[in-house]
Specification:
122 residues, alpha/beta, 2,3-Dihydroxybiphenyl 1,2-Dioxygenase, domain 1
């Protein structure tokens, strides 16, 4: 059902470096690059993730209650990606841990304040 999720940025080069580093560790590659819109996918036919400078030229803003969640294979991968996000300048919104019901996740905000998550089912 979901084709891709997209977040906006107000600092294109900084955000692009942040997401290129994380997407590489997720095994995702750029599938589109239009200068103000970049999308990554792990595989054809799978949902993607995109970064955009708003088309209307107004500042990108963060949606309260909105979040993009990336499913990974293991708690160790959640831990590693969360640690990498923090090293790239992300801010903590909930460190890696068991959240109940066999769900292990970590929450953070990117450089523009967009809320993201890495998680797996255990």
């Amino acid at each position: 059902m979901i084709g891709y999720a997209c977040v906006g940025t107000n600092d294109w080069n900084r955000a692009l470096g942040f997401y290129d580093a994380l997407m590489t560790d997720l095994g995702a590659k750029r599938v589109m690059d239009y200068g103000t819109f970049v999308a990554w996918k792990q595989a054809e036919g799978k949902p993607g993730f995109a970064l955009v400078q708003p088309y209307n030229k107004k500042p990108a803003t963060v949606g309260n209650g909105c979040m993009v969640a990336f499913e990974v294979k293991s708690p160790a991968q959640v831990d590693a990606l969360y640690k990498k996000a923090m090293s790239l300048g992300a801010s903590d919104e909930g460190p890696p841990g068991d959240r109940g019901d066999n769900y292990y996740g970590a929450y953070f905000r990117d450089l523009d304040g967009n809320k993201l998550n890495f998680h797996c089912w255990t």
